[in-house]
Amino acid sequence: MNVLRTLAILAAAAPLLGAQVAQPEYQARRTALVTSLPGDGVLLVLGTPEPKENYQNFWQARNFRYLTGFLEPNAALVIVRRNGVEEGMLFVEPKDPALEVWTGERLGLAGVRPLMGLEGRNAGTLRAVLDSLLTGGGTLYTVGDFSSGGADVPGAVKPRTADDQFLDAFRARHRDVKVADVNLGVMRLRAKKSAGELALIRSAAKVSAAAHREVLHAIAPGMAEFEVQALAEYTFRRNGADGPSYGSIVGSGPNSTTLHYNKDDRFMKDGEVLNMDMAAYYAGYSADITRTVPVNGKFSVEQRAVYTIVQAAQAAAERQVRPGAAFRLLEDSAVTVLRKGLAGIGLIEAPDATYEYVTADRTARCPQYRLYYMHGLGHPIGLDVHDVDVYTLGAMAEGSAFTIEPGVYVRSNTVDVIPDTPANAALKAKIAPAVTRYANIGVRIEDDYIVTTGGYDRITVDAPRDMDEIEREMAKKRGPSPRDAGQVEAYKKSKP
After folding, report:
1. Which helix (H) or strand (E) holds 358?
2. pLDDT of residue 9
3. Which of 44, 24, 21 has its CA nearest to residue 34?
4. Which residues contact 425 (CB under 8 A, 6 or more apart)?
5. What is the DSSP string of 378-416?
6. Which of 231, 174, 171, 240 is nearest to 205 (CA)?
7. Which residues contact 127 (CB under 8 A, 6 or more apart)?
8. Position with higher pLDDT, 5 vs 475
């Protein structure tokens, strides 16, 4: 791995799609975070430790990457704020030629200041430096992967982490020091995407869409799901991406109705649909695209019926996108269409119909449409595929990057999921024929968007979405397309 892939995207680089993240932006992010702190103290931002085995992939903590762009393990950022004066230092592993035979070249202490404008310190001295800075009390502001919340999932309860253990030891030595978690402050900064970040998200979307178009030229009955996955991920890499943004989901037939199917080991059959949730990770930023296509290249009547409902729901949500709109409005608009559509093909009794849902402690009513649409409408994208954004805290803002992904999943055992109660008996009998007719059709359509002054920009438009367009593209049977030379050149320029 090159030591500073993202950080070395300097202002002088000539990117393909506009400004990239330059070093002054990292400095501005750090300054904004420190300025937001309630008082003087020491800010500690912990990176990801070295993997236990040197053959395991290393992934830098997202909040640390956001503030530094530094992609080596065992690193930590410390900023001392006293009387309005800030002093920053980056703790890194020192250069070690013998170790670098295994790890690759490291930046080393001397390389930190020229590239980052920070003082380089030996990572092995972090504990001693913190002890010295906070002897006699004060406040330690922390950003890291903590079990009560953490860098990427606020409010989540996780097992004790290496960062937890580091702070436990610090607290034991400094009981007079106040420790304050400021991960949320970083997330609020990450919510507003810069021009450079949006350019990278667009690049991720462009590469992802190219892969979706590529696989359409190969899909055929008898092909394995993992072949589609391999071709897509190969296309990511050969067009300049770091790899997949998440574990690719490639599910055919009954697997198309499993939301997070990840085995990708079934051989596709004639007459089935193939649900493909696959996207690229480009210079640290994620895209997220899902397409559903007919394995044989032609949608059946039943597949078209379900696809039409899902696409109409997505279109209804799209019409609501604008600065100031609450994401809940998009969700409500999509669900209204889904309810009406499912009732129209007999999968539910009526748009507002419910069924009796029995739990261990109570009996309640559940909307019938939830038998086929179980997830949310979308999520932010950025450094994480499920990123933070302002609309998750309120209204969407210009520059928000997010997905819209309605779906309908008709599992063959849908009727069996409904509790066997007297109140549900009539419902089960009524919808059973429609469930049989549409069984094993799972349709999800997911696109990526950026909110603009006038509404939105669908940045995954290059991935065929309309049924007729999909069929036309699938008719173009050929080998791998030529590399996207522009994306490859942009990738080369992102390296130090």
Report:
1. strand 354-358
2. 34
3. 44
4. none
5. --B-SSSSS---GGGTSB--TT-EEEE--EEEE-TTHHH
6. 240
7. 169, 170
8. 475
Segment 241-290, tens digit of pLDDT: 999 999 999 999 999 999 999 999 899 999 999 999 999 999 999 999 99
Domains along the sequence of the chain with CATH: 23-190 (3.40.350.10), 194-493 (3.90.230.10)
The answer to whether residues 4 and 111 touch, using CB atoms and an 8 Å cutoff, is: no
Span 355-374, mean pLDDT?
92
CA 476 to chain centre: 31
Q: Which has more pLDDT, 16 or 51?
A: 51
> Quick one: how many helices (H) and strands (E) in the chain?
15, 19
What's the CA gap between 439 and 419, in Å, rounded?
19
CA 430 to chain centre: 39
- Give dist(CA 61, CA 73) in Å, integer: 9
CA distances from 271 to 100, 253, 277 (A): 53, 9, 20
CA-CA distance, 139 to 178, in Å (whole number)?
A: 5
Segment 82-89 mean pLDDT: 91
How far apart are the C-alpha atoms of 18 and 200, rounded to whole Å? 9
Q: What is the largest CA-CA distance in the chain?
A: 75
Distance between CA atoms of 480 and 218, rounded to whole angstroms? Answer: 9
Contact (CB, 8 A) for 149 and 183: yes
- Per-residue b/e over 344-379, b at no fewer than 16 CB within 10 Å? ebebbbebebbbebeeeeeeeeebbbebbbeeebbb
Strand pairing report for 177-181 and 138-143: parallel
Read out DSSP for 220-271? Answer: -TT-BHHHHHHHHHHHHHHTT--EESS--EEEEGGGGG-TT-----PBP-TT
Torsion of CA 93, 97, 100, 104, to 10 degrees: 100
Backbone torsions φ then ψ of 203, nearest 5 degrees: -65, -45
User: pLDDT band at residue 455, thresholds of 50, 70 and 90?
Assistant: very high
Q: Phi/psi of residue 62, each to 5°?
A: -60, -45
